[in-house]
Specification:
Blueprint: H1 3-30, E1 34-38, H2 45-52, H3 60-70, E2 83-89, H4 90-101
Antiparallel strand pairs: 1-2
Helix pairs in contact: 2-3
């Protein structure tokens, strides 16, 4: 193999590794900006949507679908004690809570 071929192969491998790291880093970190809800006895995805959907601009069906996709939930059943990420950014949630307590 000549030097040019080796250079192309190394550049390709480094590019693939860089893209993989960027995609994995942004995917894992993006949910950290959202509010988490601890599931209580009797809660369902629909009851959580009823409670929090008013703070978003999406429909209840889209809210439930988002929660299922981001939390890898394959049904509407959830267990008490589970933590579920909801489509409300932490800064928005705490701002709303602060206004409500004043």
């Amino acid at each position: 193999m000549n030097k040019l071929s080796v250079c192309y192969i190394l550049t390709f491998i480094v590019s693939i590794l860089a893209i993989t790291l960027i995609v994995s880093y942004t995917g894992a970190d993006s949910l950290e900006n959202y509010h988490k809800v601890e599931i209580k006895e009797g809660d369902s995805l629909w009851s959580i949507a009823d409670e929090f959907q008013k703070k978003t601009e999406i429909s209840k069906q889209d809210f439930v679908k988002w929660v299922q996709e981001k939390n890898n939930i394959h049904s509407t059943l959830i267990k008490p004690g589970d933590l579920v990420v909801v489509p409300i950014e932490k800064t928005d949630f705490y701002h709303i809570e602060q206004i409500a307590s004043e």
